[in-house]
Structure formats: C-alpha cells, structure tokens
Design a protein that fits this description.
Number of domains: 2
Structural class: alpha/beta
Number of helices: 15
Shape: elongated
Number of strands: 14
Strand content: 15-25%
CATH class of the largest domain: Alpha Beta
Radius of gyration: 27 Å
CATH superfamily of the largest domain: HUPs
Distance between the termini: 49 Å
Helix content: 25-40%
Order of helices and strands: EHEEHEHEHEEEEHEHEHHEHEHHHHHEH
Length: 391
C-alpha cells in the first residue's frame, strides 16, 4: 500500500476540450513549487497523483497553488478485492484518533462488480468490527473514509485539505497591475492571479515627494504575490514632473482626476509594449472621491483598453480580510506614502465635468508622458529573502 497525494482539479473539469491545456499548466505550477524535492507526477483527465517520500512538505507547498480544488493524503491499493479494501481500511484508520466515522465510495470504474453503497456497507462493518470504541455516524462523522474505485487501482483517504481553486497562473494571459503601496491593489492582484492571470506591475513614484522606502514597500508587496505563483516585473514610472506640472498649472480640486488620467495613458502604452491584455487596479466604488462612478468614468475616458477592477464591489473590511490572509496587510500599512496620497487636495471633486477636464488638459504638456515612458526603471521581483532586505 503506497502513501501518496491525490489532487482534485475542481473548476478545471469544466473546460471540456481545453482541459488538458489547463492541467498541463497546473503541472508546471506544481513543478515550480516543488524545486528541491524528489517527486513524480502522474496525471490524467480526472485526477493527479504525486509520488514522494516528503508527503507533508509537498502538501505544505501546494496549499498556495491555484487550480487545485482539494488535496488528499491517499493510500493506493493494487489488489481490488473487497477483502483487500477492508483490511487496508483498518490499516489506514488504526492510528487515527476518532470516535465516529462514515465510509463513502466513489466507483468511477463502473465495471467493478460491487455497487458503491454495498462497498461502503461492507467496509464500514469491517472497520467497526476491527477497531475498538468507535461508532458509525452518517450525518456528522469525525472521520470520513473515502473509497475511490478506479480502473487502475483503489484509493483510500480521509485526510483532505481545501485547495486554492481558481485557475493555474498564466492560463488567461498577462495583465498589468497598477500597484501602489496601499492595501487594495495587491489584493486586486491576488484575485486576478486566482483567475489564471499572470501579472507585471506598474508603480508610479514621485521622488523626492515619495521615498525609496515607499518603492521598497511595493517591491515587497509584489513579492507577496510570488508566493502564489506569479513571477513578473515591476515597471517604476518617474511621475514627479507630471505631478508637479498638474499641481502648479491645473485646477486643484481636479488634481486626482488629472493625475489618474495621466496614469492610465502611461499604463495603456506600457501594457501594449509588454504584451499585456488588460490593466488591473484596486479601485473600489465609492471608497474615495476618485472612485465615485462619475470619477471612474472621467478617468476611464482616456483609454479603450480593458480595465479590470476586481475589488469594485468589496467593502474595506472584506479587502482587509483578504490582505491579512495573503500576508500583505502588515506591509501595506507601513507608513510610507505613495504619489496618490502626497498630493491629495483638501476638497477633491467627486463629480468631475468633462468640459472642465478637456479645457484644463489643453494646458498640459503631453511630452512629459513620453519622457516618463522613456525613463521607466525595470525591476525583476526579488526572492522573499531579498525583498525582506528592502524593508
């Protein structure tokens, strides 16, 4: 009887003729996570099996891999006789601590001569007879023993772990995340990765109004997303001259509107240059003045490029909960301001008017955008240890 890991695909099973494409990318994601461990992967259309002597080390690494619905510690039996299943069930359960149990059988091999309910009944009776001080509870058992009858073997398992679900990173192509040092944008990035999107990052800084510590915080936040399989680059845009020009020459209560419109223009050109299919950000309806629907419409006016806002309908507490779960929250609250906060007007406009926007933008020197694009700094995301050095 071999102890191994059995992977259930979940949402990947809805992909029909494209399922193998998704499964192959999931295999690559897993392989990237298991560097330095001896293992062998075996997979088919319905299940994946990982053979290794380091069961729990592999299990721990797979908990952050998108595309996995469930991970179970399974026991493979090559003898498919009901007697072998019964004795193996006792061997599997005899060292577990429980008072109540239930047996469920999944007979994917329909040629197996005993029906699923009957297998469960026979195995349950045998376990009950051969392990002391336990009872059957069909409604709320402490241990649920699964018997999976497949054509090539029988698998027994009771120890299961919920996976990350979603799609393997990269299955949906690449996008450009507008990453600030705050709480929201990194959470938007995480939710996008979960849907199979790989990310590069654009960060706008305004030195000396913002600090190197603020940039380093963004690098650390990008590294958090590496824990979930994303490997991308950070494109640092020097936004100082653009921001100063807007601040000195344009209508003050529209400052955030103009600033965001310039950011979108730059992000669109960069996204096209690097082959990204969309721009993603952490905007949330109504959270701040620049995120009312009329403000979002005014900012979005500068581009026809797809803009995805994963957090649009989240409230702040929901966003914070996700940030804490993924390990970004404590980094995001470090007291280093980004360029979106250092130039906030006292009374920002919440319902900007297009005639005012167009009139004011006639004053703007658009060569500043080209200069910023030509002066972008590119940073490869460091390892976790290197990222910690920044902070």
């Amino acid at each position: 009887m071999e102890k191994l890991l059995l992977i259930k695909y979940g949402e990947l099973t809805t992909k029909g003729d494209n399922r193998n494409y998704f499964i192959n990318l999931l295999v690559k994601s897993i392989e990237n996570k298991l560097v330095g461990i001896n293992y062998e992967i075996e997979n088919d259309y319905y299940r994946m099996f990982i053979h290794t002597d380091d069961i729990y080390m592999v299990l721990d690494r797979l908990k952050n891999v998108f595309g996995i619905h469930e991970i179970v510690v399974a026991y493979k039996i090559n003898d498919s006789s009901i007697d072998s299943i019964c004795t193996s069930a006792v061997d599997v359960l005899k060292n577990a601590s429980f008072k109540t149990f239930k047996v469920e059988t999944n007979r994917s091999d329909k040629s197996y001569e005993i029906k699923s309910n009957e297998v469960s009944r026979i195995v349950g009776a045998y376990v009950l007879k051969n392990i002391n001080d336990i009872s059957v509870d069909v409604h709320n058992p402490e241990v649920l023993l699964n018997v999976e009858i497949r054509r090539e073997a029988i698998y027994l398992y009771y120890e299961s772990y919920v996976g990350m679900n979603g799609y393997p990173v990269g299955t949906m192509g690449k996008a450009l995340l507008m990453l600030s040092g705050g709480i929201d944008s990194v959470v938007a990035g995480y939710l996008s990765i979960k849907r199979g999107v790989s990310l590069d990052f654009i960060y706008f800084e305004s030195i000396p109004h913002t600090s190197l510590e603020a940039r380093n915080k963004v690098i650390a936040l990008a590294n958090v997303l590496c824990n979930y399989g994303n490997v991308g680059r950070i494109y640092v845009v020097n936004f100082t001259k653009i921001q100063e020009y807007i601040y000195k020459n344009m209508k003050s209560d529209y400052l955030i509107t103009f600033m965001r419109r310039m950011m979108y223009r730059i992000a669109e050109k960069l996204a096209k240059n690097i082959g990204a299919n969309a721009i993603i950000n952490g905007e949330n309806i109504g959270q701040v003045a620049s995120q009312t629907l009329t403000s979002i419409k005014a900012v979005n006016d500068v581009t026809n490029f797809p803009i995805i806002r994963p957090l649009a309908t989240y409230d702040k507490l929901e966003i914070i909960d996700v940030a804490k779960k993924i390990g970004s929250y404590d980094i995001s609250i470090l007291p280093y301001e980004d360029c979106c906060t250092v130039f906030v007007p006292k009374h920002p406009i919440i319902n900007p008017k297009f005639d005012v926007i167009y009139s004011e933008e006639e004053k703007f020197d658009f060569s500043l955008l080209e200069n910023a694009l030509n002066d972008i700094m590119v940073i490869d995301i460091p390892t976790k240890e290197e990222s910690n050095e920044y902070l």
